[in-house]
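Async update (no meeting this week)

Hi team, since we skipped the sync, here's where things stand on the single-chain job. The sequence we agreed to prioritize is pasted below, unchanged from the tracker. I ran it this morning and attached the output directly underneath so nobody has to dig for it. Comments welcome in thread, and please keep replies under the output.
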Amino acid sequence: MGVFGGALAGLGLLAGLAGAAPAADRQPGDVFRDCQTCPELVVVPAGRFVMGTHAERFPAERPAHLVTIARPFAVGRYEVTFDEWQACVAEGGCARNPDDHKWGRGRRPVVNVSWPEAAGYAEWLSRKTGASYRLPTEAEWEYAARAGTATEYWWGDDAGQGRANCRNCGPDISHRTVPVGSFAPNPLGLFDVHGNVWEWVQDCWHPTHEGAPRDGSARLNETCQERVTRSGSWYYVDTNARAAYRSKFPAGAFSYGIGLRVVRELP
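Output:
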């Protein structure tokens, strides 16, 4: 079931940043940011989509179910970069400057951050800007990544070659992250929703979608020792980069394959 339908038809992603537009006037596909060192954001419209899959070989993605996103929100155009994380460190909002494994920093996605550190970065953005930042819910993540598509990847059911950074996504294996925006964006204008690094989301891990919220909210529990990650990474094969694929890591884990993308709530 499509999500954006006519909302983005003929719209086209706006050139440059739409930061000058009042928050209430922002339209689906608009790009903006709240400060010079803040992540660029893309406005995602309200809508509905089918989350998960019916595929028998992926029980963690079942049952497929209809989710309604009642309010627009803004999501990071890219995975959070080392440059953006460094701004948080420089201002005292983030305590640790993660290792880059000598791959380079700058526009590469920040890695080696735990779930509490990722959530803390979003909290720092909220304090800095006065807006409400957080990690995406699992449903919001899949909704934005699909951008109105219902296929395995936003471009279709075949991973193909040269469309993402993963272990078998191209003739030359990178064995590392690549700078954000190295591949084409999805129809909403989001980059690297398949591969590059896993992205922490709010939700606690549950082994299936049985009993999952239908309103796009996060699925939590009292202990929540494991959190969900989405997107796949440079280290994993294309199967793990599918839009519906779910993975888990201990909340305190950090790895050269895990980063984050943020959500900003809209008025």
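Quick observations from my side:
DSSP finds three helices and eleven strands in the chain.
Residues 9-16 have pLDDT under 50 and may be disordered.
Reply here if anything looks off.
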